[in-house]
Input
Amino acid sequence: MSAHTHFTSCPRGRLALAALLLAVPPASSQVIEYASDSASVAYQLEGSWPTAATALAVEPVKPAPSVFNEDRILGVMPDYQTVRDTTHFVTPLSVKDKWMLAVKETVDPFNIATGFLTAAESQAGNETPKYGEGWRNFGRRVYAAQLDFATQNFFSAGVLASALHQDPRYYRRGPQSKFVQRIFYSVSQLAIAHQDSGREAFNASGIGGMALGIAASNLYYPSASRTGTVMFGRVWTSLMGGAVGNLMSEFWPDVEQRFFKKK
Output
């Protein structure tokens, strides 16, 4: 039997309990009114206090936008290096960003696939690099094509752009300029680059990176593909490829907006 049960079951206990209840004065009207007001305030606060459902409705913090252009030309070709909107201040790339650009360009699936196609083309006619025929030599061509692209990105966007404080990106002129002016501008950007400070300068990182990349290929190209004529031909091909790339970066947004209604 508990102490509480024993206390209330005996006559003395009941008598003491009755006396205790009679000794407690009834609550005054002010106390009752105060309690009523407190309950009303508590009810109002409960209605305005954020609940778990309200907290879940708060939007999460959005990640910072990429410093690179993630849109693709024709939906497949990477265009990381293009600054499409140059009508406002463009934040310069950090050294880390420049190296990241070199990596993104090198490992992009489209560029890797292009290396395989380039190897297949040179394999068909035993063109440069002249490794010969057969599957083994096709593999060597694929390796050389991927390495060619990687070394040029490494030297241009990574090493020289960082050392010379140059921006490896292409600054698009945009539709505010005339068509012919934009063509000349696109081609001229092979030789002109933007410094991190914003001023224009000779594109030493782009031209120098291309030259260093081609020179480095002599370490793994066969002797038949290390002649001066072959080297000059590769420089010319790289320059033409750069010009076409700039033109596509310049005009593709216009084509996309006009025919695909993309803003």
